[in-house]
Hints:
CATH topology of the largest domain: D-Maltodextrin-Binding Protein, domain 2
Radius of gyration: 20 Å
Helix content: 40-55%
Structural class: alpha/beta
Low-confidence stretches: 1-40, 42-70
Distance between the termini: 48 Å
Largest sheet: 5 strands, mixed
Strand content: 5-15%
Amino acid sequence: MNLHRELRCGLLVASVVVLSFAVACAGAPAPAPTSTSAPAPTKAAAPTKAAATPTAATTQAKDVKPEAKPTLAAKEATKTDGRLVRLTVPYVAVAGSYTPLWVAKEKAIFEKHGLDVDIPYIVSSTTMAQAMASGEFGLANTGGEAVVASSLGGGDLVIIAATNNVLGFSLFSQPNIQQIEDLKGKTVGVGRFGASTDIAARLTLKRFGLEPDKDVAIVQLGGTPETMGAMKAGAVQATITGPPNSLTLKKLGMRELVNVADLQIPYVQTCIAVSRRYLSANRETVMNFLKAYVEGIAVAKKDKDAAMKIIGQYTKTEDREVLGETFDFYVDKLAPRIPYVNVASVQTLLDEAAKNNPKAREVKPESFIDNSLMKELDESGFIRKLYGD
């Protein structure tokens, strides 16, 4: 089943996503979705036999030989609408770190750079990586850990831009805990083991001399509703989260022990990934996408009200306080003007991957990075002009 057919069947999944976000935003009202915002979450088409093993939620069309069926990415290289090159670039989370992509879409910046871009929402970074490995997509806005895992498994993905080069979270505790050292002997809740919240919790505790699973218990809670519920009920003493959940916790009287982003722990949390095969065949298209993407960052940074409105479209809230907190953290604080990929940030991904995959110890972080396109944009003066420098 290809992605576009699944998109039409994603209404049920979309309703679950909207419900989860509504809980995180403490009952913020949700406006009716527009045709250009927050596409219904869907699962990508399953990889071919040469790619990673498909999940139970993915299927492959029967009686179709992979070599006889053109991939979506291949077809995009030739399909045009007038002078616009058609492109599908999915994203994997309804979070403020994806604002540049949303702004580029809603402000018609992609069209300005010769592209007609669809940005569907796919629920999982792992599913995304499998779809890219099978050739379903050439480009994606995704999490760095999935890119590294796919490449270690034989995939050809490479990171060409990073919106977050540090872990962008905060560590919140129950009101009676005064400082992070007081968490010794206590329990910290995370979404799921191996996810960025889990990694952030463990690395933050280590920064303050606490050993995870020894000095502080780490428990897996699930999604946002479970995490918020556990904190409200006092079932855990602390958790890792970011806006808008951080605002919800503040309103519940929880204490922000550490702004993890201020620790500058290197980590590629949100990035643009591309298949090397697609990049080789469509370098000009990828460059035009990056032009629109970095312009999306600039437009968001220069026009807070417009950016907040677009964030509201995709996160389905009109709560100005929630939108302001999301903008301030992800756009103003974390998003760089020039989203180069940091070597140290990829090394952290490899260090974490090495716990389960020995291959991660044998490779260099540079092999997962291609900063050449961003360097070309930077040295051309294109990005400086966006800011009037």
